[in-house]
Every structure is written in C-alpha cells, then in structure tokens.
C-alpha cells in the first residue's frame, strides 16, 4: 500500500490494483470561504497550494472515495476534475444521493466493493448540537487481500464507535484528521490532540495524521503534534506526512484481515437534509463576506 498525501484530507491511496483519490479538495489557494465562522483568524481557504506533482500523480486514479460532502473533502474543482475523467465515485448511502445530484457516477462503498472487505463506521463531527449540525459522517475500513487493512476515520471526534472499530477490526493503518478544527464556537469538531494520543496508544500499528496546516480553522501544526507524540513515546506509531509525501506500508500481519461487522448505516434523513441546507447557506454567506473584505 502506498499513501501519497497531497493536502488536507486529499490523498492517493494505492491499494492492490486500485489508485483511489480520497476526498479531493482541489481548489487553488484563497478561493474557498473561511471555515472559522466566529472569533478571529478567519481567512480564505485553502491556505496552501497542492504540491507541484499532484495533478500528474492524480492521472493514475482509478476511482474516487468521498468520506462526506463538506467542501474541504470535495469541492467544485474536485467535482469538475472527476467529471472530466468519468471516474467512479465511491461513497456511503447518506452522501450518495447528494453526489449523484451533482452529476457524478456514484457507487455505494459496501462490503465486497473493489474486491475489498469494507465496513462503514459512523463518525461524529463535533460534540453536542454542533456535531449534529455538522451533519452525519462515516469512516471506512478497507481490507484488500495482501495489503495492510486501513481505517480512514473521516472527520470525527473520538467516540466509542471509533474506539470499538479500532479494537475490533485491528486496522494496520489508521488515517485520521488531526487539525483539531474549530469554527470558533462549540468545541473542536475533529479529534483533539489528547484524543489523537489515545487513538495512537490504542492503534495496532500505525496512525497517519492529515487535515493539517491547510485550512483557517485547523490550528494544530505538524511540528507541535510531532513533539507531543514524541513526548508521549508514540513517535514510532505516528506518521505526519508533508504535502506531496509518499509513504509505502507493507503488510506485516500474517493473520487474515478481521472481517467487517454488519452494515448498519441508514439512508439520508432529516439531519442530512437540514445540515446540507444550512452548510450551503453558511458557505454562501461567508463567500459574500470574504469578497467584501
Ligand atoms: Zn474536514
């Protein structure tokens, strides 16, 4: 398996015969609205460009995987890029209808898809009312024969469902968002640094941390996070890739992959409908405010 980290949550995952483009936010710097909605520090996003070789590397993609429908995981540039190549988009049942309505060739990522054992693990994109308003998110456990199993947590805080998945599925690689994102009210909407320490302590082998230094509402730095993990004695279990860095991970376990549990995700409901509507309104309002000043 090779993880070619591009920027934020965008990466190429080379697994078996596939090259999967994960969560493509492909916008040029300063062309998306700020996500810090309250308090100081709001700036246009993304803060940094994609690495120079990103678009060349992306031509190898055989499909796209989307964790959830937020613009830092799939933006208008990403949609345009996918459509121009006619690539299949693999996602969950909650986000599938919204992505289809954007004209994408959408397939549900379920057990057996792409020749992999798959489980969808619910996430929680913040706590309390804020987490609810951020909308439903899921993570994906992907186990390809002959490759390390990987759990892409998607945007979430540390929940019992996440910890249960780590304990039960024993993913050899966990890819987790580490920016400790905060919109300025209501607490962090991604793993806090303390939660990342817990995740790394419980991880069977390796945690790859992304969603860093690319967006205005993600204050955690790679260097600060690396120092904290080293201080906790976890440096060997954690990898924090630079944008453009490629990481190869060989299968080490000789045991068969842990089989996924039953699939329990519901279809899109009231939460998805309402939060998609509110997120669109916020994005529109912040775009207008950013263009004014
Ligand atoms: Zn995100």
Describe the structure.
There is one protein chain. The chain is α/β, with parallel strands linked by helices and 293 residues long. Helix content is 27%, strand content 21%. It is built from eight helices and 13 strands. A hairpin with a 2-residue loop joins strand 2 and strand 3 (18-22). The longest helix is centred in the C-terminal third of the chain and has 23 residues, at 270-292. The chain starts with a strand and ends with a helix. Bound molecules: zinc ion (ZN). Zinc ion is lined by residues 9, 70, 72-73, 155, 177, 211. Zinc ion binds at residues 9, 70, 72-73, 155, 177, 211.
Which ligands appear in the coordinates? zinc ion
Number of strands: 13
One letter per element, helices H and strands E, the order comes to EEEHEHEHEEHEEHEHEHEEH
Q: Indicate the proportion of strand residues.
A: 15-25%
Topology:
Blueprint: E1 2-7, E2 10-15, E3 18-22, H1 54-58, E4 63-65, H2 76-85, E5 88-91, H3 96-100, E6 105-108, E7 117-124, H4 128-133, E8 136-143, E9 150-152, H5 160-169, E10 173-177, H6 193-202, E11 206-210, H7 222-231, E12 238-239, E13 246-248, H8 270-292
Parallel strand pairs: 3-4, 4-5, 5-6, 9-10, 10-11, 11-12
Antiparallel strand pairs: 1-2, 1-13, 2-3, 7-8, 8-9
The chain binds zinc ion.
List keywords for this structure.
8 helices, 293 residues, six-stranded mixed sheet, binds zinc ion, alpha/beta, Metallo-beta-lactamase, Chain A
In short:
This protein is an alpha/beta fold.
């Amino acid at each position: 398996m090779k993880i070619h980290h591009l920027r934020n949550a965008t990466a190429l995952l080379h697994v078996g015969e596939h090259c999967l483009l994960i969560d493509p936010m492909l916008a040029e710097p300063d062309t998306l609205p700020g996500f810090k909605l309250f308090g100081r520090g709001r700036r246009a996003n993304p803060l940094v460009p994609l690495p120079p070789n990103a678009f060349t590397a992306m031509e190898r993609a055989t499909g796209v995987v989307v964790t959830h429908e937020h613009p830092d995981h799939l933006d208008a540039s990403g949609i345009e890029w996918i459509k121009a190549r006619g690539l299949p988009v693999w996602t969950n049942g909650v986000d599938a209808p919204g992505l289809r309505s954007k004209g994408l060739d959408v397939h549900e990522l379920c057990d057996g898809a792409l020749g992999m054992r798959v489980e969808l693990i619910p996430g929680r994109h913040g706590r309390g009312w804020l987490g609810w308003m951020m909308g439903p998110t899921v993570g994906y456990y992907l186990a390809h024969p002959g490759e390390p199993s990987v759990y892409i947590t998607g945007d979430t805080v540390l929940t019992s469902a996440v910890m249960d998945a780590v304990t039960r599925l024993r993913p050899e690689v966990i890819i987790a968002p580490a920016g400790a994102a905060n919109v300025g009210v209501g607490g962090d909407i991604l793993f806090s640094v303390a939660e990342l320490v817990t995740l790394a302590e419980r991880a069977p082998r390796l945690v790859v941390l992304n969603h860093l230094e690319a967006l205005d509402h993600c204050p955690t730095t790679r260097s600060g996070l690396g120092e904290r993990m080293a201080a906790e004695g976890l440096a060997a279990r954690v990898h924090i890739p630079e944008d453009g860095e490629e990481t190869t991970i060989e299968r080490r376990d000789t045991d068969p992959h842990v089989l996924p549990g039953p699939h329990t995700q519901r279809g899109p409901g009231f939460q998805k409908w309402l939060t998609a509507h509110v997120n669109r309104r916020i994005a529109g309002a912040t775009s207008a405010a950013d263009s004014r000043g």
